[in-house]
Design brief:
Helices cover 31% and strands 17% of the residues. The chain is an alpha/beta fold and 712 residues long. Among the domains are: 138-327 and 553-575, Dimethylsulfoxide Reductase, domain 2 (3-Layer(aba) Sandwich), CATH 3.40.228.10; 584-711, Barwin-like endoglucanases, CATH 2.40.40. The N and C termini lie far apart (54 Å). It binds ligand MGD (2 copies), iron/sulfur cluster and molybdenum atom. One ligand MGD binds next to helix 16.
């Protein structure tokens, strides 16, 4: 029996874990109290890591499907099969790629997903970003020049937080790495600070808030523009230290002219007096920040809403100052140049619907179009890595049909689930305790500058390969070097090239290719720390609170914060038109539960036991009006589909709104997830619409779907 320390890769909070290991099993998981960042915090998902890894349905060897049957094969056979079959698709665009959420949660994905996309060279790259946070990338790209320069609320030092469309008490934070979010919100209040939550549902976060503002789904953009309007109307604009770094602020007033509190009250359901009061409190609080997430990004005006969030942070003088919205500086990153080429989209367009490319990818809502529509460049083969598009994309009945029509499909995934059942080859990565970990992605969003590296707590079993090797092998297959190419030689060349680019004059150290790459990035990084130092500090290294980064963070051509980027300003007439279009009827939104993680952790008994989590929340008034009863079954229908869901009547949800979580709808033929099958739930994405999207970012509208409800 021994103890090992690692970082939980299951959500963005990056909690430190203390694992008890007996033989080759994790038998106990505790929050690591000595962790410099998470201070011992643990949620039910992290606590179930041992059970997740011991899941008998988890794949341990590659599977290949021939004549309709999956059979275990060796890794050599699996890669040779992939190589042979991909030769049938000489047109690069005919091979599509879908990267899902766990790709950003591993060191392998963090280091190798980029090179993999390059090696594939297809325009048909899709990721979960366009059913999630892409509006934020587009907005910060246009305003600050870098698509990953996302400011985060400095919660530990703020006096006032305005949170829209996020439930960090359940999700543990997103685009905001904030381990023990509930504890940090509690401390904020203990210091005398306040926080306000805007949500159509009384979420766990809303319950703990000083004020819960109930809003009509999809209308946050109007509320946010009205708040900007009020800053001008009440003479509350204070740029402070930002004055010398901003261009375009004088134009903003005119842009929001039509969005006064009285104009938006009816459409948002938020009273004009509440909006005026909120604007005043935001502007007069000592230090404040505005933060928006899923309810502001997976909506029709996601990019404009994200823009309005940071315009508020700028106009109240809270961007880039302690207690406001600040930019982290991760150990593996370098300081920026202070100006640059800026941000563009649309370097190519999707073949069928003509959507612009954003960050090298096309909207996931159009993946099925690209698979099903004949013609040059039609996607006939697909590689999925750590994704479950059959459940996570809108109009998923159509997505499943498209997947089943492919000529060839490869999935890198530990489960035979709703998506991978369509694959011809499934390549299973090892579980979290058997891999080295460093957070390439989430340290970009973290509320303190911290760094932590952990080696695998348990060695890989004989015959298993690391996910980094799976990535590397696919890279050599895509770029033509083939399934037997010498990975170490290729990695050495890659390392040498990067060393030259970074101007490093030392030899990076480490036991693996990935460790040497990381050491190189760390030692040339902003904090100048080494992999060795991280290995000596198993609970992480605290690099201090966030510090101001203007102007070095900017990559705009002007070297300023562009407050009025033309593409975003150009979308405002559409917002105004929507404001003037009356809207009624029942709207469907999503939600998350602490014991659930998108679509893939429902096979862990401890996480699905008890009361079902996949229920349709209905307000008592709507239940009475439609004849629905608590515990009964509702038929929910939308433009694209119809489902039956178990009803939960509660005044936690606003009248005129129903809520159903995503990631459910298990038990389908050909899947191998027995526990999930017994707790199947229904798939909300059979109702969400693949035609609706935020055009600036290509992001799906997953919240605010028009539905009808009736008793069954
Ligand atoms: N209606 C509605 N739909 C939504 C959302 C919503 O709020 N409402 N949310 C959206 C959001 S924010 C997201 S991020 C997407 C998620 O969409 P996806 O990324 O497509 O789906 P996940 O459910 O995260 O699926 C993760 C997959 O990775 C596999 N996996 C787990 N661990 C590993 C690993 O270590 N390596 C590899 N290679 N695979 C692994 C799992 O078995 C599973 O198949 O869903 C989106 N869909
Ligand atoms: N436990 C758990 N944690 C997770 C995940 C999970 O599945 N389970 N998924 C992870 C992923 S991939 C992501 S992207 C993050 C997401 O992190 P969050 O954004 O915090 O996710 P949610 O908990 O879905 O919170 C979204 C909230 O928006 C509300 N909402 C819906 N529509 C609207 C609207 O139009 N306006 C407003 N103002 N509110 C609206 C919902 O009621 C809900 O309370 O969570 C991550 N963490
Ligand atoms: S909050 Fe997230 S990172 Fe922390 S233990 Fe839970 S799943 Fe893991
Ligand atoms: Mo997400």
């Amino acid at each position: 029996m021994r103890t090992a320390f690692t970082t939980c890769p299951l959500c963005e909070a990056t909690c430190g874990l203390e694992l008890t290991v007996e033989g080759d099993r994790v038998t106990k998981v505790r929050g690591d109290r000595a962790d410099e960042f998470s201070r011992g915090f643990l949620c039910p998902k992290g606590a179930s890591l041992g059970a997740l890894e011991a899941d008998p349905d988890r794949l341990t060897a590659p599977l290949a499907r021939r004549d309709g049957e999956f059979r275990e094969v060796t890794w050599e056979e699996a890669f040779r099969f992939v190589d042979e079959r991909l030769k049938d698709f000489p047109d690069r665009d005919s091979v599509g790629l879908y990267l899902g959420n766990p790709v950003v949660h591993s060191l392998a994905g963090g280091l190798h997903a980029g090179p993999l996309r390059q090696a594939l060279g297809s325009r048909n790259v899709f990721t979960a970003s366009t059913v999630d946070q892409m509006p934020k990338h587009v907005q910060v790209g246009h305003m600050f020049g870098g698509a990953f320069s996302i400011p985060v609320p400095d919660i530990d030092r703020t006096d006032f937080l305005l949170v829209l469309g996020a439930d960090p008490f359940s999700s543990n934070g997103s685009l905001w790495t904030v381990p023990d979010a509930p504890g940090r919100f509690r401390e904020l209040r203990e210091r005398g600070g306040r926080f306000v939550v805007v949500d159509p549902r009384r979420s766990r976060t809303a319950q703990a808030a000083d004020q819960h503002v109930v809003i009509r789904p999809g209308t946050d953009v109007f509320l946010l523009l009205a708040l900007i309007h009020e800053l001008f109307a009440q003479d509350l604009v204070r740029l402070r230290h930002l004055a010398e770094h901003v261009t375009g602020h004088t134009e903003v007033r005119g842009l929001v002219e039509a969005f006064g509190p009285d104009a938006v009250a009816g459409r948002t359901g938020v009273e004009a007096a509440t909006i005026r009061d909120l604007a005043r409190r935001l502007a007069t609080a000592g230090r404040a920040a505005v933060y928006g997430r899923i309810g502001t990004t997976t909506v029709e005006f996601g990019t404009v809403a994200c823009w309005a969030v940071d315009v508020l942070n700028v106009l109240t003088g809270n961007l880039d100052r302690p207690g406001g919205a600040m930019w982290p500086l991760p150990a593996h990153a370098r300081r920026g140049p202070g100006r640059g080429k800026g941000f563009t989209t649309g370097r190519w367009h999707s073949r069928v619907r003509g959507y612009p490319e954003v960050l090298g990818e096309l909207p996931a809502v159009t993946m099925a179009d690209e698979i099903e529509t004949p013609g040059d460049g039609q996607v006939r083969a697909l590689v999925t890595i750590g994704g479950n598009p059959a459940l996570s994309l809108p109009n998923s009945a159509r997505v499943s049909r498209a997947l089943s029509s492919l000529d060839f499909m490869v999935s890198v995934d530990p489960y035979l689930n709703e998506t991978t059942r369509h694959a011809h080859v499934v390549l299973p990565p090892p579980p979290p305790s058997r891999r080295n970990h460093y957070d390439i992605a989430f340290l970009n969003n973290s509320v303190r500058n911290v760094a932590k590296y952990s080696r695998a707590a348990i060695p890989l079993e004989e015959g298993r390969i690391d996910e980094a090797d799976i990535f590397f092998r696919l890279i050599t297959i895509f770029d033509g070097a083939g399934p037997e190419a010498d990975l170490d030689a290729i990695a050495a060349a890659q390392l040498e090239a990067l060393r030259g680019k970074l101007g490093a004059e030392f030899d990076p150290e480490g036991e693996t290719r990935e460790e040497r790459l990381l050491d190189l990035k760390l030692r040339t990084g902003a904090h100048g720390i080494s992999l060795r130092r991280l290995l000596d500090h198993p609970h992480g290294v605290d690099l201090g609170p966030l510090t101001p980064r203007l102007p070095e963070i900017l990559r705009t051509p002007s070297g300023k914060i562009e407050l009025t980027p033309p593409p975003i300003v150009g979308d405002l007439p559409r917002v105004l038109e929507a404001l003037r279009t009356p809207e009624t009827g029942m709207l469907l939104v999503g939600r998350r539960h602490l014991r659930s993680n998108n679509s893939w952790m429902h096979n862990v008994p401890a996480l699905v036991k008890g009361k079902p989590l996949c229920t349709l929340l209905v307000n008592p008034a709507d239940a009475a009006a439609t004849g629905l009863a608590d515990g009964g079954t509702a038929r929910v229908s939308s433009r694209v589909g119809e489902i039956e869901a178990q009803v939960e009547v509660t005044d936690d949800i606003a009248p005129g709104v129903v809520s159903l979580p995503h990631g459910w709808g298990h038990g389908q033929a050909g899947t191998r997830m027995r526990v999930a099958g017994e707790h199947a739930g229904v798939n909300v994405n059979l109702l969400t619409d693949d035609v609706r999207l935020d055009p600036l970012s290509g992001t799906a509208v997953l919240n605010g779907t028009r539905v009808e409800i009736a008793p069954v």
